[in-house]
DNA sequence: CTGTTAGCGCCTTCAT
DNA sequence: ATGAAGGCGCTAACAG
């Protein structure tokens, strides 16, 4: 109720007008000072302005600046799942690039909820971000209508979105899947299970699975005979389905282990996880079923390189996550600056990190 | 090169003026509609406005609204280290609460760099966020001058900051450390090493270490005799120092294992990690040194409950991370709304999750 | 070199 | 029930 009698509440931040008054000059000069048009200011005036700013602890209001000049240096970073270390790593690259380019990333976490994704996109739009980097859930274009061709510039990360033409940067899934599969074949494995979450909706999963199948079906040409490849869908969102899938895998492992005539890796089944969450779920299950020494019966290879990989000794395909994030921002920045080329694809190579799991 | 020389660039978003014109009315009515002052609008006008908004795909500019009404519903969330799963989990709670309260969190990741922290704080301030939640690096007050008493409302998470009076929410470190230590003592361990990153600067680490030492020094009263407690500082930021510290631990483990007269857990040394990053580093080292069966010689107990804990079978103290984040936002919201009570402490209990590591 | 003026998109009295 | 006018904090022409 009290007016300005007591400065109990936060003592309103100083505005450019306050500074102008304090420095005994006009707002324009302050503005010029703020924008580094230092050449057009007498040293004397400049000093006065500096002092006034100091005294008032003045900090220009970005919102107002943004409103005026029509851009606020904000970009949105929409992440499907921060729980996945992949996301955090990409984020680091994004942050570094933003820092370098004078951008401020608004990080939004959809937590695997389509509804959240929609909501955040709308919010970003409303805050007039200059562009967005989207690590989308596996959804069709409609939910991200505001971005892309018609709306604000967008760059996709890891996954493309059906019907949305936009730059995309991510792993070279095809090459990486081949790398992994060949590593297993070269290691002597003859039964390989590719385990992946439902993949129809998510382009990266689709590509990985397809490349795996292709290598498996053409491998006779590479001198390998009678190797079998299977694809197993693991729906982590549904515990019941997950159980069923795991049971199927168990049967295969048990069967393989009971074959008498085989030795070495030919007797072990190899499991190729399409990403870290899948690998974790598999490892937990296998450990629960076969005990601490589960890797004696199963070899595990996984996309991503989570922090526990080294501890467990599983082989992985590490993605150049930092660079993915960095490049995404660079692409976006170009778009913001008006570059009009056709949609670009930036596929970065993965790195195979061989550990005990596949090389004993 | 361009067909329609006009709409080549993004077709400027519609403004409230456009909508007013389209609906054949004044800006005021549009504004009223947007703010739900539906009672003061004839159904007929309302319908026209609705239609106009649809047609123009109009979305009010939050920046402008914020500028005008002096608040933008933005809050800052400053995180010391997103790489630590703790942060991501807290974040989930923060997001949920923001969602519920109509706030939009600006997530800033300091990546363990004091300079970053300073920079982001300054940035948040210029964007005129209404408050900040700070999971600070271990720094003194000065770097976060803009917040707290003098500046915008702030709530601390996990760690207090010397010289800054503000609400704080986090784990009840004292109780949790006691819980863990007693668990080890009850399990028969007689040599316990508390391993922690440099803790002078970080209140939570300090509290944990102090509580550990206190329990160890008063335990004779609890009927336990001759148990030894040691504190080992592991400076993860410095590889060399880390090596040295680990070597010291190794010597202790080797010595304990060579004692003839002891059996069971009395022969194993227990290591109590002050957080997940420390636990991971320890586990990696121990595995490298003692092989896959390292837990036969060392029991590991850790604060935090990282995803690999179950896989490795180490005992942990899980923090109520989600709730911590949620409560932090609630506190902040109250402050934003003007609540003036003295600084509050919200200490939430941890949960001991016993696994094979400490119970074989 | 420096100040004046006119908005950016929106909300808010204050009239009508 | 509706609209006109002024201003939030700042920048960008224009003068001088």
User: Can you tell me the CATH topology of the largest domain in chain A?
Assistant: Rossmann fold
What would you call the shape of chain A?
Answer: elongated
Tally of discrete structural domains of chain A: 3
Strand content of chain A: 15-25%
Q: What characterizes the major β-sheet of chain A?
A: 6 strands, parallel
Q: What's the CATH superfamily of the largest domain in chain A, by name?
A: Response regulator
What is the element string of chain A, with H for helices and E for strands? HHHHEHEHEEEHEHEHEHEHEHEE
Q: Briefly, what CATH class of the largest domain in chain A?
A: Alpha Beta
Structural class label of chain A: alpha/beta
Q: What oligomeric state best describes the polypeptide chains here?
A: homodimer
Using the CA coordinates, give the radius of gyration of chain A: 27 Å
Q: Can you count the helices of chain A?
A: 12
Uncertain regions spanning at least 5 consecutive residues of chain A: 1-8
* CATH architecture type of the largest domain in chain A: 3-Layer(aba) Sandwich
Question: Widest sheet of chain A: strand order?
Answer: 2-1-3-4-5-11
Largest interface: A-B, 46 and 46 residues
Can you give the mean pLDDT of chain A? 90
Distance between the termini of chain A: 76 Å
Please outline what is shown here:
Chains A, B: This is HTH-type transcriptional regulator KdgR. Two copies of one chain form a homodimer. Chain A has 360 residues and is α/β, with parallel strands linked by helices.
């Amino acid at each position: 109720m009290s007016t300005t009698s007591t400065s109990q509440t936060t003592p309103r931040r100083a505005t450019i007008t306050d500074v102008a008054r304090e420095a005994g000059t006009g707002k324009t000069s302050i503005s010029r000072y703020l924008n580094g048009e230092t050449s057009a200011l007498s040293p004397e005036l400049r000093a006065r302005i500096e002092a006034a700013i100091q005294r008032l602890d003045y900090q220009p209001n970005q919102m107002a600046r943004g409103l005026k000049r029509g851009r606020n240096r904000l970009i949105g970073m929409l992440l499907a799942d921060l729980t996945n270390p992949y996301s955090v790593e990409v984020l680091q690259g994004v942050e570094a690039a933003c820092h370098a380019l004078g951008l401020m990333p608004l990080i939004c976490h959809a937590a695997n909820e389509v509804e959240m994704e929609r909501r955040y996109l709308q919010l970003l739009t409303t805050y007039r971000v200059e562009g967005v980097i989207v690590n989308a859930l596996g959804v069709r274009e409609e939910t991200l209508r505001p971005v892309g061709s018609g709306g604000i510039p967008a760059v996709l990360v890891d996954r493309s979105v059906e019907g949305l033409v936009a730059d995309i940067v991510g792993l070279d899934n095809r090459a990486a899947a081949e790398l992994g599969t060949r590593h297993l074949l070269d290691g002597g494995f003859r039964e390989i299970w590719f385990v992946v979450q439902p993949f129809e909706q998510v382009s990266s999963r689709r590509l990985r699975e397809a490349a795996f199948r292709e290598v498996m079906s053409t491998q006779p040409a590479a001198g390998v005979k009678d190797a079998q490849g299977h694809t197993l869908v693991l729906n982590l969102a549904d515990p019941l389905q997950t159980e069923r899938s795991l049971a199927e895998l168990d049967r295969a492992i048990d069967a393989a282990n009971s074959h008498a005539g085989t030795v070495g890796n030919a007797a072990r089944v190899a499991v190729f996880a399409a990403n870290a969450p899948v690998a974790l779920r598999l490892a937990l299950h296998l450990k629960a079923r076969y005990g601490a020494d589960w890797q004696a019966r199963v070899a595990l290879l996984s996309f991503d390189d989570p922090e526990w990989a080294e501890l467990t000794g599983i082989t992985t395909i590490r993605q150049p996550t930092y660079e993915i994030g960095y490049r995404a921002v660079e692409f976006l920045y170009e778009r913001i600056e008006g570059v009009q080329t056709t949609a670009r694809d930036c596929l970065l190579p993965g790195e195979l990190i061989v550990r005990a799991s596949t090389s004993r």
